[in-house]
Amino acid sequence: xxxxxxxxxxxxxxxxxxxxxxxxxxxxxxxxxxxxxxxxxxxxxxxxxxxxxxxxxxxxxxxxxxxxxxxxxxxxxxxxxxxxxxxxxxxxxxxxxxxxxxxxxxxxxxxxxxxxxxxxxxxxxxxxxxxxxxxxxxxxxxxxxxxxxxxxxxxxxxxxxxxxxxxxxxxxxxxxxxxxxxxxxxxxxxxxxxxxxxxxxxxxxxxxxxxxxxxxxxxxxxxxxxxxxxxxxxxxxxxxxxxxxxxxxxxxxxxxxxxxxxxxxxxxxxxxxxxxxxxxxxxxxxxxxxxxxxxxxxxxxxxxxxxxxxxxxxxxxxxxxxxxxxxxxxxxxxxxxxxxxxxxxxxxxxxxxxxxxxxxxxxxxx
Length: 366
Known about the structure:
Elements: H1 2-17, E1 22-27, H2 32-47, E2 51-56, E3 67-70, E4 80-81, H3 82-86, H4 92-109, H5 112-119, E5 127-130, H6 140-145, E6 149-153, H7 159-165, H8 187-219, H9 231-235, E7 240-243, E8 259-261, H10 275-282, E9 288-292, E10 297-298, H11 304-315, E11 320-324, E12 338-341, H12 346-350, E13 357-361
Parallel strand pairs: 1-2, 1-5, 2-3, 4-10, 5-6, 6-7, 7-8, 9-11, 9-13, 11-12
């Protein structure tokens, strides 16, 4: 009798310990670096036996056990006109990022596959992970599936999200990302940071959030949505926030226990480079400059005269230049020190120990 009791007890404990959770990841906007920064976490959860469903615009290249992709929800990502960024200052950048968020949200949430997923009642989840940058309505997935929500922040906590997490974002010593300042700010930088923060709060509260609520109330109509709490209430009550940043490459700022920095988990050991790329790096006696403007910016939008000046200046440098860019104008003559391409293994280039590399890239964490 006693051995049977012991066996049943051990079996119950083992069953409890090895119980797999059904986890939903909801990051629908087509911002590749935001998804890729957290993808190792999703894959590791699936490797440990959990069933992970990822709703995003960037499915894995190869199938993984226990990992289900739903998406993409946009046929082609429209690149940002690079001139929008050239003309942008610390004030207009506040308006631009929220406007882009609303435009992309309406494109993604109106997709037929997204509508099918939202209206489906065939799945249940124990945990929901969402990104709320430019897609705050995603937090409603926690209400739909009656599950706790983990917020995934793609970069250091900024002014507009800190209020939902109840952490200070004091303008005097915590720089806003739009100002491109460090924590070592003088009077002018602090003044600029304060103006940016106040403008951002105004734009978000009175212009952006009402539009976000319209997106949520238009496209997130599922069974029981009528009882959904206000958007602000749901954002104020996430269970945990994971931040893709690290104080070693950012700034020191106060966080509450419910906010954890996880920056760097996507970094892997560098792989061997393609032969032509390795040869190009080996020939760089003065080092290499690597330009990558992300997935939403296309240099072909530059006026021809400005593009010509850009290429001419880079061609006079002693360094070798790598640019993630495919010229569409066949008349463009590239200097011998410039290599272009539609894609480069960025991590492998940065991890190459043959030559010193200086990179000029977008703000992503790839």
